[in-house]
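Can't attach files on this board, so I'm pasting raw text. These are the components:
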Amino acid sequence: MFSRDGSSLLLHARENGKNALISVNLTGGDRRVVATSKFGSRFSIAPNGDWIAFTERFQVYTAPMPKTGKTLDLSPKMSSLPVVRMTKDSGFEAHWSADSKTLHWTLGSELFSRKLSDSFTFAEGAPEELPEAPASGVNLGWSEKSDIPKGTVALIGGRIITMKGDEVIDNGTVVIKENRIVAVGAADAVAVPRDAKTVNVSGKTLLPGFIDVHGHVGMTGDGLTAEQNWNFLANLAFGVTTDHDPSKDTETFFVHSELQKAGKVVGPRLFSTGTILYGAVTGFTSEVHSVEDALSHIKRLKAFGAFSVKSYNQLSRSKRQQILKAARELEMNVVIEGGSTFQYDMTMIVDGHTGIEHNIPVSPLYNDVLTLHGSSKVSYTPTLVVSFGGLSGEYYWYQHDRVFDHSRLLAFTPREILDRRARRRLKVEEDDYNHIVVAEAAKALSDAGVKVNVGAHGQRQGLAAHWEMWMLAQGGMTPMEVLRAGTLNGAEYIGLGDDIGSLENGKLADLIVLEKNPLEDIRNTDSVELVMVNGRLYDAATMNQLFPEEVTRPPLWWEK
Amino acid sequence: MKTVLTLVTLAGLLSAEDKKKEWDVTAELGPTETISFTTSEGTWMSCDVSPDGKQIVFDLLGDIYVIPISGGEATPLTSGPTWDVHPTFSHDGRSIAFASDRSGGDNIWIMNRDGSEARQVTDEKFRLLNNPVFTIDDQYIIARKHFVDTRSLGAGEMWIYHASGEGSGTNVTDRRDWQHDAGEPDVSPDGKTLYYSQDVSPGNTFQYNRNPHDGIYAIHSVDLETGEKKKVTGGVGGAVTPKISPDGKTLAFVRRVGTETVLFVRELATGVERPLFDRLDRDSQEAWSVFGPHPGYSWTPDGKSIVITAGGKLWRVRAADGEASEIPFTAGVTQRLTEAVRFKTPIGGSTFDVKTIRGARVSPDGKRVVFEALGRLYFANSNGKRRKLLTSGGGGFEAQPAWSPDGKEIAFLFQPLMVAGRRHHCLPERDGQSDPWSSPFG
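---
Top answer:
C-alpha cells for the assembled complex are below.
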C-alpha cells in the first residue's frame, strides 16, 4: 500500500518477534517501523492517516493514530489509546473508505461497513449512545450452478463391493445418470439404458470412492489460486474422491471447495473445518470463555460453508464443552484433536464429540475403555500414518516400499519431494513399529462398536490413504472392515452418508474401479484404474477424462 | 481505611457474581444416556497405597476407587461426569489429593479418605495442574503445572501450593523452554529432595519420532533447601515416574528396554540399577504426555513391594526379586454419555451457495465493491446488486483487486494456467492492469 503522499510504501513485516507495519521509500530505503503487534496483523491506515485498523484473533480493531515519530504498539487490550472492536463475530479484509470515516470488512459472503462515528464516542457526529457492532452485512454471494455432467454411463461386468452391509455382487452393473447412481445390481438384473455409454469392467472390482476424513490437502494460499493442483490429482488418481480437512486456513480452503463444486478445478470433493479453534497462545487463537464466544467462532466458519469445526487443544474441559454446546445449537459437527492425551480423549468421548482425530496414545486399551467408547457414538480417526507414542506409521511404508519409484505417485507428485523423503530412510525392527499395536487397539474399538475412519493427515498425497487402510489391516481388521473404514464410515462421520460412501441407487456417482480384488489382498486397494467423481469418469493413470467427453489433462508444471 | 474496606467488599461481591456464571462441567450438553458396567480391567490406572498399608486408591475412567490391599470389590470415592485422576494419600492417611476438572479445567483437590468434603487447592483457568503429591508434613501439595505458548504442545513445572488452598502457589522448578515437558513429582521421606521426570531431548522445540533408545526423559532431583538440581538417572531407554522408597534409599522408576517398558529400582547410595518387572504397558515417552509418561504407582509402607498397573490389572511386585502377583479387583463403572454431535448435510444438488468472497474492496466513491469469488473478480453495487464479472477473462484465475485512488482503474493479480506446487510458480508473471480485456472502468 502506498502512503498518502505516494512517497513511500507500507509493507507487512516482522520486527523483534512481532508483526509489523513498516514504511520504505520507493527505492527500498529509509525503513521505518510504523506499528507493531504481538498477535495483531493486517494493519490498515486510514487514507487521512489518522486511524489504524488491525486484525487479531479474527476480530477487527480500530484505534486513533497519533503522530509520535515512534513505533505504535497495538493490542486489543492496549491502555495507551482508545481501541474499539469493530466486528461482532469476525472480520476479514478490513479496509477504509476514501473519506476515512468508514471501515469495511467481509465475513464469508457478507460485506460489513461501520462508521467511526458509530464506534467512538468522540468521533465527529457520534450519537449519544453508540450502536452495537453490525450483526449482518450486505450479501455479495449467490447461488451458482454445480458442475453436473450430462449423459448416462454403465460400468458392466465388475465385482461390486457396494458397502451396503457386506454385499458383493460378483458380476454386476452400475448405471450412472448425470451425477447420481441410478441402478446397481447383478448384470442380468440391471437394464442398461439404450443411450448409455458402456464400459466393460469385467474382472475388475468396483468400490465407492475412498473418503479421507483427515486429509490436509496441499493448496495455494493467499493470492492467486492454482487452476491445476497436483495434490488434488494425486488424491483422485489413488481413488480418494472426498477429502475432509480438519485444519486449513478458512479462506484458502473454501475458495478451492467452491471451485471444485463449480467444476473449475479438478479434484476430490473438498470439505473442511476451516481454521482450527485453537487453544494455544497465538494470533489465531479462538478464545472461548462462554457458549456465546463459541457461537461466534463457529458462525465464522459456517459463514464460509463449513459443516464441522475442529476443537483443538482447548485445555479446559469447560471450553471444549462450550464449543460442543454451541455447535449443537448451530447444527455443526465437532471433530476434536485427541492431542495425545489419554485422559482428555476419554472426556471427549463422554461429552459426545463427533469423533476423535489422531490415535488414543495408550495401547492396548482394556475392557473399561472399550466398553465406554463402544457404548458411545463417537467415531475414531486414528491417523496411523502419524501415530503418537512411537514411530509414525508412514516410516513403515517408506522403509518397506520403493516410494520414490512409485509410477502412479511420480505421475502426480513432483519427483524432488519423493526423492527427498523416500530415498534415504530409516531401517527399523518390525517390533519397534508402535503403529501396529495402535491399529490393534483400533480394531478392538471397532469390534466394540466404534466406527473407525481413514485419515491420511496429508502425508503422501493419495497413497497415504492406502497406507492407512493397510495399517488398519495390520491391526487385524478384515479387508471388508478396512474398506468400510475407508468409505461408508467416513461418509457417515462427516454427515454425508446419505449421498456418498456406498454404491446404492440415488447416491452420488463417486466410485473407483480396481484392477485387483482388495478382498483377497488389502494391498490391492491402490490398483486404481478408473475413478469417477460426481459422475465424471477419469483414467486414474493419466487423469484424462473419459466421460462424458474425452478431455486430455493439461500438463503438470514439471511435464512442460 | 474505610475506602479500602469498601473496595474489598465490592471485590468480594464481584467474584460471587462471577462464580454464579461459572461453567458447570456436569451440566447436560445434550441428550444423555447413563451406562453401567463392571470391569476387572482398567486402562492407564494411577494408584497409591495408603500409609497404613491397608488400601489401594486408583483412578479408572475418571473416577477414584479404593480397594483393600489384597484386592476385591472397589468402592468409588468419586463419581459423575467430572474427570478425577492421580489420587495420592496424605502422609497422615486422612486425605487424598487428586486432579479434577470439576472446576472447569484440571486443578488439584483434596478430599477426606472416605471421599467426602472435596475442597479445591489450586484455581487455575489456563495453566492447569495434575500429578499432585503431599509434602512430608502434609502442609503443601507439589504438582505439575502445564505451560503452553504458541504451540499446543507444552512444558511442565513443579509448583508448590499450601494445602489449605490459600495463595496461588509458587514454582519449584523452571521449565526448560515452552515445549519440553517435566512432571511426575515425588518427595523424599526426609522432605529434602524433590524428584521429577524431565524431557531431556535436544533442541528447544518438541520433535516427533524421537528415539527412545537414545533416551528421551531423565529423572532429575532438586534439593528443597539449597535448590541444587541434579540428574539422577536417564540414558538409554530414558527414565520416568520416580517413586522414592519409604526409607529414602531406593528410587523406583520406569525405563524402556528394547520394546519393553520395565520397572527399575536404583540404590541411590551405589547407583546400582536393576530391572524388577518387565510387563508394563508401553510408556508414553515418545508421545507428548501432559499427564505423565507412565501412570503413577506406589511403594508399600514397609518398602518391600511396589503396587503398579500392567496389562489392565494391578500388581504387587516384590522389590527384592521382582516376583509379581496380581491384585484382583472389580469396579462398577457408571458414566453419563452425551449423545455425539452428528448432523447430516445434503450434497450434490444442482446449485450451491457461493460463500467465499475474498479480497473485497469498496470503491473510493463508496458506490461499488470489487471482490474475488470462484477464481474471478466481480464488481457489484455496494448494496450487493448488479453483480458482473470485472473482465472478459483471459483463461486464468484473478485475485486481490485494488482500486486506484481516483476509482478509475483496478489493479489485480492474474496468471494464465496458474499451477500449484512451487513457490515461483505461484507468483504472477505480471500485475495485470484491467486491460487488455474490456473493463467498465477502462
